[in-house]
Amino acid sequence: MPQDQLRRLLCLILPWVQIATAFLPAMGIGTSMAVVSAATRTPVVPAGYAFSIWSIIFALAAAYGIWQFLPANRDSALARRTGWPLAGSFALNTLWQVTSQLTGSVGFGLFLIILASLACALWALFTARNTPEPGLGARWIVTPLTGLLAGWLTAASFVNLSSASRAAGVLPEHGIAATLAAVIILLAAGGAAAALVWLLRRDAGWFAAAILWAFVGVVAANLGVNQVNIPAALAAAVMLALVFAVTWQRRRADPLPA
């Protein structure tokens, strides 16, 4: 079918477009995302090293594109059902990268792009969960890709919300009010993540891993040499513990079938 061919082609190409556009500043086009992030940094933003998770997500996305394009997987129900939402998320991530680098800022428009990408990633994650399929591709490519992508975009949505609010002047740059706003956003992020983990039951492993990595990065960022914000670090640590506890409980309550 033409639609299937288009889906397979998009899922093959878009991961590489996503990777290529991340390196536009290295080619002298636009502003690096690290500089953009630093310009509107808030206590909700994880330490820089935490963003290295994108390297894993990009690699899995490229592997997914190849896996689903192989003739042996042409009729895979898992590839067919996850293809369109993943293609949407890859395209939206590319749009976010290009827009942020060319404008040099993080605004509410980019926040909406992240939300749309998150919606696609969650669609792919729950679809994969409900489409069991044997094979190494399903287990080691689709499952970690959909989990890590949805998990990190969940965290990124709240990070973008805080940065966009700072850029728009909605949130103050310093003081008790800025800290209080960061704590509220972190608590909301943890609550949303815990709710999604609860819904995913024992399939939440990769999703939870991305969320926990994000909170570790937030704790580290707020206990760093250049920035010490104890309330924000404490809020992130409590949410980290909450997500971990819910993940552990759901996995124990829903063991693998014998």
From TrEMBL:
<feature type="transmembrane region" description="Helical">
    <location>
        <begin position="105"/>
        <end position="126"/>
    </location>
</feature>
<feature type="transmembrane region" description="Helical">
    <location>
        <begin position="48"/>
        <end position="70"/>
    </location>
</feature>
<keyword id="KW-0812">Transmembrane</keyword>
<feature type="transmembrane region" description="Helical">
    <location>
        <begin position="230"/>
        <end position="248"/>
    </location>
</feature>
<feature type="transmembrane region" description="Helical">
    <location>
        <begin position="138"/>
        <end position="156"/>
    </location>
</feature>
<protein>
    <recommendedName>
        <fullName>Tryptophan-rich sensory protein</fullName>
    </recommendedName>
</protein>
<feature type="transmembrane region" description="Helical">
    <location>
        <begin position="176"/>
        <end position="199"/>
    </location>
</feature>
<keyword id="KW-1133">Transmembrane helix</keyword>
<dbReference type="InterPro" id="IPR038330">
    <property type="entry name" value="TspO/MBR-related_sf"/>
</dbReference>
<feature type="transmembrane region" description="Helical">
    <location>
        <begin position="206"/>
        <end position="224"/>
    </location>
</feature>
<keyword id="KW-0472">Membrane</keyword>
